[in-house]
Write a structure and sequence with these properties.
The protein is mainly alpha-helical and 252 residues long. The chain contains eleven helices and five strands.
Amino acid sequence: MRAETVFSWAEDGKYEKMEDHLRIMLDLWKNKYRKIYERPLRRIVGEHADESVRCAIILHDVGKLARFYQEYLMKRLKGEKGSLRWYRHEVASAAIASYIAGYDLPGVEWLNLVAAAVLLSHEPILMGQVGEASERYFTITQAYRSLQVACSKEVLELEGVSVINKILKDEGFQCEVREKYTLPDIIDALKGMVAKVAVLGDVAVSRVRVAAVLHVLTVIDSLSASKTRSSNDDGGTFISRGAKVAEVVELI
């Protein structure tokens, strides 16, 4: 699949290209919301607040590049029904971000905050579903099951990674997303990130830092989706729609 045909969303003849979605999010951050959020974020997250938000934006949907997910979106684009089964793209995105943090750029601690924020980035959308299912925790076993759905012989294959890598390079990040990851490697990386953020050190401080990045990521993600998907994606735009009603965020 060519990079320009990699989608972040599609339904009944309408679609959103991955690059467009990420570029809009980065533009919203740099030209509108950074001036509001960066100072308080620096107090909470530290000197790398801006990098944390930009990196989270770029990596938050990388799990959608899985061949399995792109095939699902192509069916949706044609108006056909598709099933993701157990697959949750934000889990794959977080696992890949964790791999970058653990293996490609070890020692860059703020990347673990990014991976944790990405892992939780769809929690507001899932809260109702989780409540109905009486599910209290999302376990590593469930993460493994989710990722396994999209793997062929325990290898997660991604398409269009050049889109992500170009944006990473444009934004000055010294890392790249790979075309293939083995399931054991990304699960181990995810475990390591969870241990660092949720077990080791001052857990209360870590939670506040993750929540700070998560808040900005989810708001800007929903604002971008509202711009390109309009009312066609209730799940992806409900945060911005709710914010508009509550008058807690200025919409584009």
